[in-house]
Amino acid sequence: MATLAELARHRTSLGRVQIAHLQRLVAEWGMLADFCFADLLLLAPVVDSDSWLVLGQIRPTTGQTMYRADWVGEVLAGADHPHVAEAWNTGEIVVGDMAQVRGSDRVRVAAIPVRHDGAVLGVLTREWSPSVGRELGELERTYLEVFERFARMIADGEFPFAAERSSTAALPRVGDGVMLLDASERVEYASPNAVSALHRAGVQANAVGMRLAAIGFDDHPVRLAFESAAPATEEIEQVPEVIVLVRCLPLLKGGKVSGGVVLVRDISELRRRDRMLLSKDATIREIHHRVKNNLQTISSLLRLQGRRLESAEAKAAVEESVRRIRTIALVHETLSRDVGDDIDFNDILLPLAAMVEEGLQSPDRPVRLRISGDAGRLSANVATPLAVVLTELLQNAVDHAFVDGRPGTISVDMANDGSMLAVTVSDDGVGLPDDFLIEDATGLGLSIVRTLVTTELLGTIEMARADPGTVVSLRMLIPESYG
Question: What percentage of residues in the chain have a pLDDT greater than 70?
């Protein structure tokens, strides 16, 4: 489905700034739909036509929807929507009835012109089925009054607001709790859920007729919203372990604050979960840090043991073990600094290459390493064996590709398309024997590589002659959980 911006750019004459204003309205209109218990549609005139394009649609969570179908992107005949045309032409809110439109027998419509910088950009329609014989309760009357005040602000170009001082991904909704304030910041109405939220925050007094500060509730977001004539959102911890998210939206009339709407939501459980996750992440990072330290201790002990050995073959075997342990320790060191179970593999590859250069280089064997590409973020279950594989391949290239002290370059190229990781290790050395097959290789290093690639990484490996040198190609699927 096309976005509001795409529909507006291709089918209407709206400019970038005007589309941005409509996007801000759509970002807020879930609250408006809940206040008016009705479906909302956003319409704009189609270029060179008397029809209307539906740019957006939202259903209320506080009432029953009129429409099961989605109308976004549909073009509606202008003759069927005279109230929309009247609101567009006059710039005033128009209320009336529509008959047999979009599958409903009778629909009540309020067409609200959306104004910005003095120009009408589109029309917001509230569409509902009129109730017969039922008197509205206090909550319904108050919510409809709030919507009507927002509707007037939309028609006057005072809503949506251009910016908000504070923002959060868990903004409170109408169903969480609502308080209506007058121009002097006194509570005119508090919904049952708002009263419950105040009670959980330690406020037992009746809020109606009082300022929030007078009943012991932190009113900083209210004062901030009234002073700046813009929304303000803050988290308030009234009592230990009870956190209430408070959002205050000022109600404007003629550019002046005439009241405010306060939405409150108890987010204590969410914050407790956040703290638990942070504690869990810290614990996991500490575990990785300790594993890294233990591996470094093992590495140091092996070095001490290696110095006491007289056999050159035994010393070489110990040094190879030390190198592999240091490689795994490097992965755990990187994991100890990151939050989560996956890491940017380039953060491992660069220090890994430096470690290999430091351990393998000598003046009589000048070999350079070149790294290119991006492996992306990988799970620790993949990063650890892949790091060991690369270390073995680099060691193998230095030992066998550059004999007799000849200089050369080893290149590591990485490519991650989101589903497949491709790694290429190439050198410009002497190349492979003509009869070489990796499946028949008996050396410990290549045996480790072959086992890790096929069993741990569930990938494939190929080694082939190049002109000059050798090319090793690895390919492995990336699990969806972190790809």
Answer: 91
